[in-house]
Amino acid sequence: MNRRSSRTVTRAAAVTAAVAATLALGVPATASASAPPSVTGAHRQAAPGIRQVVLQGAVNVRDLGGYGTYDGARVRYGLAYRADALNRATDGDLSTLDRLGLREVVDFRVPLELQYDGADRLPAGLAPISRPVTDSGLYARMLAAIGSRDPATQDAMLGHGQAEELMRAEYRAFVSDPGARAKFGATLKDLVSARGPLLFHCTSGKDRTGWESYVLLRALGVPAATAQQDYLASNGFRAAADAALRAALKQSGMMRDPDLLIPLQEVRVDYLDAALDQLTALYGDLYGYLTQGLGLGLRDLAVLRARLVT
User: Fold this and answer.
1) Residues linked to residue 81 through DSSP beta bridges, in sequence order
2) What is the DSSP letter of 6?
3) With contact defined as beta carbons under 8 Å apart, do 163 and 263 qualify?
4) CA separation for the pair 295, 88 (Å, rounded)
5) Which long-range contacts (CB under 8 A, 24 or more apart) does 156-164 make?
6) Bridge partners of 280?
7) Phi and psi of 217, rounded to 5°?
């Protein structure tokens, strides 16, 4: 298959960078596949097959239901959700999340992200499960580059294709890092155990969350092209917020060329391909990755499909 800081940051600079970063913003088995659960005013059909959960404090929250599978079935609505971080959820957002009936929220963010961005705000009685998945130091590197306020340093750290290669390295680690595999596998197993609707997220809801979503959809029998469409949709959901962050960084004088961040803000086919190439090299195919890499047995895969597909 062909799929394709060393610099010290002061706390004040890092906090300023983190504040800017916040502007940008991983049911029962009888649930219907033809319509989403009844959450008045919460769902919006953003594109064919892609249903957004509309929140004020997060921009990339989606129901993974509705996608067709290779054999003509459909992924059920209201069972698996993907999102960006929920630390900025408003009181109104909490009401929307409460109406989703979530039983579990999995947070893939590493401690540094939690330190600067803050913990999730969730409905009463719901606490996030922390399952940090490596970001290969990307968040720290971004803070270091922004916090330096030095164009030459920022260019040296992120320019000339470096940011793109950092992203590809992160995606390869999703497959090769034992800790990442354990966290991704545990989250899929939670869906197998049918504890109820589950939401997983990272900071931007596009990389760690995007990979887990892609793997889940493929495990359910969703064609690769459709799963890739779901992955790439993050660019549309995040475009305005990411552009606002770059504008704010330029206006504040923290970055002369904030476009250096674009490769870090976007999802790209070659990032996904880097993970898929690593998957092929280590496990041969998706089934090998699911079973040997993530620890799902044949029964797990069968139950996962029976519960999430109709």
Assistant:
1) 63, 199
2) -
3) yes
4) 34
5) 157/5, 157/7, 158/260, 158/261, 158/263, 158/264, 159/260, 163/260, 163/261, 163/263, 163/264, 164/263, 164/268, 164/270
6) none
7) -60, -40
Nearest to 83 by CA among 101, 113, 57, 115: 57
Question: How confident is the model over 132-162, as pLDDT tens digits?
Answer: 999 999 999 999 999 999 999 999 999 999 9
Among the listed residues 193, 186, 188, 198, the one whose alpha carbon sits nearest the alpha carbon of residue 79:
198
Q: How far apart are CA 205 and CA 214, in angstroms?
A: 12
Which value, to the nearest 10 degrees, does the dihedral of the CA atoms of residues 41, 46, 49, 51 take? Answer: -30
Strand residue runs (E) in the chain? 43-47, 50-53, 62-63, 80-83, 104-107, 129-130, 198-201
Query: What is the rounded distance in angstroms from the CA atom of residue 60 to the CA atom of residue 202?
Result: 11
Amino acid (one-letter) located at 141: R
**Does the global pTM surpass 0.85?**
yes
Q: Read off the pLDDT of residues 42-55 as tens digits, 9 standing for 90 and up.
A: 555 555 668 999 99
Residue type, 206: K
